[in-house]
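Supplementary Text 2. Reproducibility record for the structural model of the 200-residue chain.

All settings were left at their defaults, and a single model was retained for analysis rather than an ensemble. We include the record here because the model underlies the residue-level annotations in Supplementary Table 4.
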Amino acid sequence: MNSDEPQPEQPARKSAPEDRDTAGPFDESEANPVRPYIDLGGIKVLPREGLNLRLEIEEQTNRIVAVGLDYAESTLQVQPFAAPRNAGLWDETREQIRAQVRQQGGRVEEREGPLGPELLAEVPVANADGTTGKRLARFVGIDGPRWFLRGVIGGAATGDMQAAESVEDLFRSLVVVRGGNPMPPRDLIPLKMPTTPGTA
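Retained model, structure tokens:
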């Protein structure tokens, strides 16, 4: 074969723990159907003691753009995205996050975490008194079947091992509902308000 010929581009590899299909985050097809999940459309959350749920809404469109979970003195913001069947998005997304953090004047380092490659970022934030402080955040991501789940971890779980384990366990208990509709890769899978148990 002539080495001068253009080589077909390799699809970006998927980044996920080897036991993702049994330990999560789960695809809807892998989740336990009898568990009492809170249905938020593109994500299902398993209730647990001490967990508070917030939906982050875009003002202009009134669209839910992220799910916020407060747990173990930490925060976990999650967003599910459509992804190609055979390629992952996390490698490319990490590059984008790294560039954004540096643009804001922050510092970022990549490390291997319990969920795979993650970014630990130190982001400048404005304090109420007008001074500038720093906030630590962990960016994690998992490539699933036709979806990508991104998480941003803040609070105690950026440094405390026990809190980190609790939040990682929470992240892995999530279920992503991709749905059968065609969607361009990187589009946010639609999220919705939870229905009260017992109502349709």
